[in-house]
Structure formats: structure tokens, C-alpha cells
């Protein structure tokens, strides 16, 4: 076991030294990035927050508490990339890399402490996203929808739902419940034929009943004749499943991994397309794992003589590789959202591709 560890780690002292230096540098960069970006973001949004009557300093701090987790989650991989680059450049400038290689330490052994530390950062990032970021995102989106006013309490109620059934449009102020127990409040049905509005049906409530929606306390307005009539009940929208109302606004960013997987299963059971949500589901894992790639992509800055004058160029190349990865990752996720890429390819294609690129660059330049 000791011999096996020796193939990956140079020594406990060197591993601890490099890992500690890398982690402290990465979190220092992250703190600086988040502080600057949060300040700029707050300056741009404070006018909208304070525009709501009664909002003040407490609401500004509330916005910061909800927005900061999003910034941390988004820019943590950038901070890990910059932390790895700064660590490698500093070690190279101080000839510590040369001393390590003179002692027989390989390039992969130099990278291993940083990769192990980045695995820990990735695990911490995943837990942070699941426990804090998803909740903060859902709360912030609801607060923004309320124009920074009081946020309605979440009781599993979906608000302002629009559903299309053939040519007809159905609107409900609220939809609550699940499955056959879904209930609608303040329902409006726009009955259209060939794109022409024929009838407007309004009801105080509606419930799913034998394949259709039973509306109660109905008022029916005939647009063509201009005649209104009241009915005790009316069944409309046969064939419209309950999940069309309750699962119409599933946002992958607002749900943790398990909740999103459950929502996807419900949508698949109803025959609804889920490719975009599946890409978001897998990206909840591949996103944090991107931190593990950053030391490998930044490794090009670790090797080569500092006095050769190419250290800056190597650092730029490492930064370019890292930022190219983020562009490819966002592009893959966008293609997955529109269904152009399969979900697994959209989420895992960029990490696997840049893992191969990073290994190729490292082997050709040093090993």
C-alpha cells in the first residue's frame, strides 16, 4: 500500500505543503471575485429592490444573502483555475518545481496534491449547491417575480399557469396538489376555433374528473353574440393531464438532485419531453467535478524554466485552456437544453474532452 501511494505522492510533507498552498490561494481568489462581483451586482439591482415601498437596508442584505451563493457556485471553478495557476507560477518562479524534479518527482506527482485537494473542493461544492444554492435560487426567483415584495409562502402551489390544449388556452391563478388530486383556482378557458376566439369561460375552481376538468361556478361569455350565461358546473379540456398544470414550471436550478430526478420521472410518466432537465440533472454532478480538471489544465504553467522567458506564455496557455473549457461546458449545456445533444453528452462531453486535452498537453510538454 505504501509503495502504491508512493507512485502518486512524492512525500507527505510535499503533498501537504502544495495542497495547503493551493487551497488557500483558491479560496482567497474566490473571496476577492465574489466580493467584487457581489458589489457590482448589488449596485445594479439596489434600485429595483428599494423601489418597492417599505424596502430598506434589511432587504438589501437579504438580496446579498440570496445572490452570494449563486456567485460562489458559478465562480468556484474559475477560482480553482486561477488558484492553480498562481500556485504553479509561484513554485516555478522560486525554482521549487526544478528542485522537485531534480529529486525525481514526476509531473503527475507534482499535480497529484492539487488534484486530491480539488476533489475535496468538488465534493464541498456539490453539497453546497444541493443544500444552499438550489434553495437560494428558488427563493430569489420568487422574490424577483414578486418585484421584491413579500414572498408568498410555498405550500406546493404553482402560480400563474398557462396550458395549451389544441387551439384552446387555459389559465389558472393557482394549481395545487398532485396527480388526480390537482385543484385549480380562478380558471379561465379561452375557447378558440382556427385561431379565432369564440368563447371565454371563467370559473372559481376546477378539479380533475374522469379525464376532463370539472369547473364550478362558471360564467360563459359568447364572444360572437356578446351573450353571457352562468352555469353551476361545466366539464372542459378532456385529455389534459393534471401534470400539465403542476409540472409546467420545473426549473433545474431551483431543485436539488433528488427533487429534480423525481420531477423528471413524473414528466416521463406523463410522456413529456425531459431532455433539457436531464442535462441539468447530470450537470449538477459534472459542474462541481470541473474543479478537478483545473489543476490539470493549469499544469502547463508548472513546467519549463522560469528564466527562459516563457513562463508568462505558459500561464496564458493554462488560463486559455481553462476558459475554453467553460465556454465548451456552457455550449454543451445550451445544446442539451434545446435537445441538440443527448443529456449525457451535454453534461459529460466537455469534462471528458478536456481531460484528454490536459493529459495530452502535460505528456507532450513534460513527461
Number of strands: 6
Give the overall average pLDDT: 83
Count of the domains? 2
Could you spell the SSE succession in H and E letters?
Answer: HHHHHEEEEEEHHHHH
Q: Give the strand line-up of the largest sheet.
A: 1-2-3-4-5-6
Gyration radius over CA: 27 Å
**Count of alpha and pi helical runs:** 10
* Overall morphology: elongated
Task: Characterize the biggest β-sheet.
Answer: 6 strands, antiparallel
Q: Could you tell me how far the N terminus lies from the C terminus, measured between alpha carbons in angstroms? A: 25 Å
Strand content: 15-25%
* Proportion of residues in helical segments: 55-70%
- Structural class given helices, strands, pairing? alpha+beta
Residue windows where pLDDT falls under 50 for at least 5 positions = 1-6
Architecture overview:
- The protein is an alpha+beta fold and 367 residues long.
- It folds into 2 domains: 2-149 and 277-365, no CATH class; 158-242, no CATH class.
- The protein has 10 helices and 6 strands; from the N terminus they run αααααββββββααααα.
- A 6-stranded antiparallel sheet has the order 1-2-3-4-5-6.
- Helix 8 (275-298) packs antiparallel against helix 9.
- The radius of gyration is 27 Å and the shape is elongated.
SSE layout:
Blueprint lengths: L1 H7 L3 H40 L5 H37 L2 H7 L4 H39 L12 E8 L2 E9 L6 E11 L2 E14 L2 E11 L4 E10 L6 H4 L10 H13 L5 H24 L12 H27 L5 H23 L2
Antiparallel strand pairs: 1-2, 2-3, 3-4, 4-5, 5-6
Keywords: Cell membrane, Membrane, Transmembrane, Transmembrane helix
Subcellular location: Cell membrane
Membrane topology: Multi-pass membrane protein
